[in-house]
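Researcher: Good morning. I'm working through a list of sequences from a screen, and I'd like to move beyond sequence-only analysis. For each chain I'm collecting a predicted structure so we can compare shapes side by side. This is the next one on the list. No need for commentary yet; just the structure.
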Amino acid sequence: ADVPENGRLDRWITSQLYVADPVTRLSQYALLGVGGVRALAALGIEPALVHLNEGHAAFAVLELARAEVALGAPVEAALEAARQRTVLTTHTPVAAGNETYPREDVIGTIEDLAAELGDPEVLMRLGRYHPQDGQEPFGMTTFSLRMSRTANGVSRRHGAVAREMWRGLWPERTLDAVPITHVTNGVHLPS
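Model: Good morning. Structure tokens for this chain:
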């Protein structure tokens, strides 16, 4: 899109942040995640830990893994190393806050990165609640949960709700053992 004639780039960017077009949103997520990690690298910053706020920046994990592969690590080891450097805070226990996308849109968005990491289907399975169901869309939160060493909700109650909501990702665990904890958001006690 063109910069507005009045030159108010700040308003133009802000008004374009939350768009309904899913392909644009995926592109924004790739820019946020992959671009964020690459921007830090360009500045000489190698984060020991990457904190994902919801699944929006989930593709940061793929960039962390790509860097490991570029250094000679096998893909599985690179993905595990990236997972060990990633934590997730989930905020929204409703479908609208846990976006899913068709396989074709995800592959189209991260095609080059996926190719560097080998079989794109491996990545697609990480984003599906039921990994073997090729018809199931790719879930940003599902992928983020699978690719984070730990996850948390934003209150004790939300941690419990999130464990219930996502327990199927860990079918071998009891509900209490689902690896989603809680960290209470800032609280204003008088209100």
